[in-house]
Design brief:
seven-stranded parallel sheet; binds uridine-5'-diphosphate; Rossmann fold; alpha/beta; binds uridine-diphosphate-N-acetylglucosamine; 15 helices; six-stranded parallel sheet; about 375 residues; about 15% strand
Length: about 375
């Protein structure tokens, strides 16, 4: 079966790695990179580290307004569908690349497979919520990471083609954590950060907060963004912040203090896994990183009012914080009672790639 797969943003490369490997054992995949993310440290590095096949097409759409970016992807993907005549099209997650791919295929009556279907924050102001709702409602097969996602779809009347496969990011973590530990232990993680960024003050394992910030709802509001940096500068441990290019641009116009904050360039996946697993806590507004912290048993504080990954909140492994200086400080510096609690297996067994392949090839059936 010939599948056309759309990727374009950092988290999609990380999700694609295990799936492409599994699917290509017995099937044909044509890979389209939309070019939504294009810096080497937002794109190429993941292909190199994770052995993702070279894309057959790169649309090179780059950055732009939602309308311009999505329209340009839609046009490019449509052309490729007409040329390649695939049996189906697969999209991951909730970015503009996801929606463009799903919409192009749906209009041409090509079956749409949505990996990470059914997630909801119930905040329709988020571009991701808009993208995922629209994508779910035009998808033919909805490959869900959790039972919560299956239940969310049911509430919207979607039951046909819904399959719980477990979370594919869990597959990627399990396949790479030993490799990351091998590559970065014995202080080599710190050497690499210095090599890439120049001298920084010394930080020790388990004695830093690992932070990432990139959500539009936080970065596009100057007051919120300033509050986040103010809170970070007043925390009791240094904050290591691999900074997303979106946020880097936006803080250039803001008067934010950097005391206690070590800003570095975005890092590759293996170093990120190592840093996550050895952090005292992760502080983030990322979707993927909340889960990785959970998989690696690192406590997390999420700088948002909602999370789609509600399972991580159980026993306070992950805690939500409003963007308020006092609240961020108290949530981050909370007592870590979670460390005494086991984690239920809410994200599957780490074999989502295989289950997604089975579901696609067998019309929705997976071997239990
Ligand atoms: C996108 C997704 C978001 C996802 C995130 C993962 C949408 C609407 N948003 O957000 O859901 O969580 O990716 O990281 O699809 N930029 C660069 N170099 C790059 C890429 C981006 O400099 O390689 C800068 C540009 O200034 C660009 C800005 O980052 O305008 C935002 O990029 P964009 O892809 O539009 O959205 P993200 O914030 O990355
Ligand atoms: N990530 C990375 N390097 C970084 C920051 C994040 O490899 O400097 C990885 C992170 O480990 C996770 C993914 O990128 O696997 C999450 O992507 P992001 O936070 O950009 O998007 P989201 O998951 O919020 O959509």
């Amino acid at each position: 079966m010939k599948l056309l797969t759309i990727i374009g943003a950092r988290p999609q490369f990380i999700k694609a790695a295990p799936f492409s490997e599994e699917y290509r054992k017995n099937n044909e995949e044509v890979l389209i990179h939309t070019g939504q993310h294009y810096d080497a440290n937002m794109s190429d590095i993941f292909f190199d580290e994770l052995g993702i096949p070279k894309p057959d097409y790169n649309l090179g759409v780059g950055s732009g307004s939602h309308g311009k970016q999505t329209a340009s992807m839609l046009e490019g993907i449509e052309e490729i569908i007409l040329k390649e005549k695939p049996d189906g099209l697969l999209v991951y997650g909730d970015t503009n690349s996801t929606l463009a791919g799903a919409l192009a295929a749906s209009k041409l009556h090509i079956p749409v497979y949505h990996v990470e279907a059914g997630l909801r924050s119930y905040n329709k102001l988020m571009p991701e919520e808009q993208n995922r709702i629209l994508t779910d409602h035009i998808s033919d097969m909805l490959l869900c990471p959790t039972q919560t996602a299956v239940d969310n779809l049911k509430k919207e009347g979607i039951t046909a083609g819904v399959v719980n496969t477990g979370d594919i990011m869990y597959d990627t973590v399990l396949r790479n954590i030993d490799i990351a530990n091998e590559k970065y232990s014995k202080g080599l993680w710190f050497d690499e950060i210095v090599r890439e960024n120049g001298e920084i003050s010394k930080i020790s394992e388990n004695e830093y907060y690992l932070a990432t910030i990139h959500r539009a709802e936080n970065t596009d509001n100057p007051e919120k963004l300033s509050n986040i940096f103010k809170a970070f500068s007043e925390l009791d441990k240094p904050v290591l912040l691999p900074l997303h290019p979106r946020t880097k641009k936006l803080i250039e116009n803001l008067e934010v203090g950097m005391k206690n904050i070590i800003v570095i360039k975005p890092v590759g996946y293996l170093l990120m896994l190592y840093l996550t697993s050895n952090a005292y806590m992760v502080v983030t507004d990322s979707g993927g990183l909340q889960k990785e912290a959970y998989f690696l048993k690192t406590p997390c504080t999420t700088l948002r009012d909602q999370t789609e990954w509600v399972e991580t909140l159980e026993n306070s492994w992950n805690v939500l914080s409003k963007i308020d200086v006092k609240e961020i400080k108290s949530k981050v510096q909370r007592e870590l009672t979670c460390l005494q609690h086991p984690q239920p297996k809410s994200f599957g067994e780490g074999n989502a790639a295989l289950k997604i392949c089975e579901a696609i090839v067998n019309g929705g059936k997976i071997n239990e």
